[in-house]
Specification:
- With 286 residues, the protein is mainly β.
- The chain has a single domain (24-278), classed as Jelly Rolls, CATH 2.60.120.200.
- The chain has helices at residues 2-21, 185-188, 253-256; strands at residues 22-28, 42-43, 54-56, 61-64, 67-78, 95-100, 102-104, 110-111, 114-121, 128-135, 146-155, 158-168, 175-183, 199-205, 209-214, 217-223, 243-251, 266-278.
- The strands form two sheets. Strands 1, 3, 4, 5, 6, 9, 14, 15, 16 and 18 form a ten-stranded mixed beta sheet that branches.
- A hairpin with a 2-residue loop joins strand 15 and strand 16.
- The protein is globular, with a radius of gyration of 20 Å.
- The N and C termini lie far apart (50 Å).
- The model is unreliable at 1-17 (pLDDT under 50).
Length: 286
């Protein structure tokens, strides 16, 4: 009995010590109403990447009741960038059939090392592709580095949650991936109401590792000794440089799969975004 009490006390002390190592240096709690803070967030516009079906626009991202809502909607209107002669997949589309939003902190809020924590509730219907991710800058993708703290989409028709990092090699726009794909059933077997709840995604990043967690379960541990760019990225490590944050809800495209129109509008709800740094360690936060 005494031994179990001592173990419990030691575990609690370890938790407190670990918590004391971290200091909150920035957060967005999304407690306002309407458009998210322009001093922090940019809005992507148009058909942007991955042959996704949605047109990104700022109208689909708004604060309400203490959360940021990114809403995917069914629409039908002319594509203002339509050009049947264009080689760009998005400009060749005559119509916008879906809309959503992607917000980024590029050029406004970047950080180097620390803990990124996001509490969110994600949509899981057919075609949904929500994400929490970061990118570097100053060099083209993927040599800028990409960290996917969360992606959700179907692989072989079965839903998965992913935790990844990507960097560059010697071939243009060709990424080297360290990717973990966890079947969604891994979570729903423990909680059948998983999709109805908020969950905490966390990325702990230092000069040695990137560790990605979901509700304190470690999903991926990426050693930075392996994340060295090829010649396009000057053989540098992109994860020794600052990254910015992206939050988006994509539909379809190369990974999202068939869209369940009956589930629209879909809502991706973000309760907060928080960045912590270890005390007495340079933050690289701007």
């Amino acid at each position: 009995m005494m031994r179990s009490i001592i173990i419990t006390i030691l575990a609690a002390m370890a938790t407190v010590c670990q918590a004391q190592e971290w200091e909150l240096v920035w957060s967005d709690e999304f407690n306002g109403q309407g458009e998210p803070d322009k001093e922090v967030w940019n809005f992507e516009r148009g058909f942007v990447r991955n042959q996704e079906d949605q047109w990104y626009q700022k109208e689909n991202a708004f604060m309400q009741d203490g959360v940021l809502i990114i809403e995917a909607r069914k629409e039908h209107r002319p594509n203002p960038t339509y050009d049947p002669e264009s080689r760009h997949w998005g400009r060749k589309r005559e119509f916008i059939e879906y809309s959503s939003a992607c917000i980024t902190s590029a050029r406004k809020k970047v950080f180097l090392y620390g803990r990124l924590e996001v509490r969110a509730k994600i949509p899981v219907a057919g075609g949904a592709w929500p994400a929490i991710w970061t990118l570097g800058s100053g060099v083209e993708w993927p040599s800028c580095g990409e960290i996917d703290v969360m992606e959700y989409y179907r692989i072989g028709g079965k839903p998965h949650i992913l935790a990844n990092a990507a960097w560059g090699n010697d071939k243009k726009y060709d990424a080297v991936w360290n990717s973990k794909k966890i079947p969604y059933s891994h979570f729903t077997e423990k909680d059948s109401l998983w999709a109805e709840k908020f969950h905490v995604w966390r990325m702990d990043w230092d000069e040695n590792n990137i560790k990605i967690y979901l509700d304190d379960e470690l999903l991926n541990d990426i050693p930075l000794s392996t994340t060295i760019n090829g010649s396009i990225g000057n053989f540098e490590n992109p994860f020794h440089k600052p990254q910015y944050i992206l939050l988006n809800l994509a539909l379809g495209g190369i990974n999202g799969g068939s869209i369940d129109d009956s589930a629209l509008p879909m809502r991706y709800e973000i309760d907060y975004v928080r960045i912590y740094q270890k005390k007495n360690v340079p933050t690289g936060m701007t």
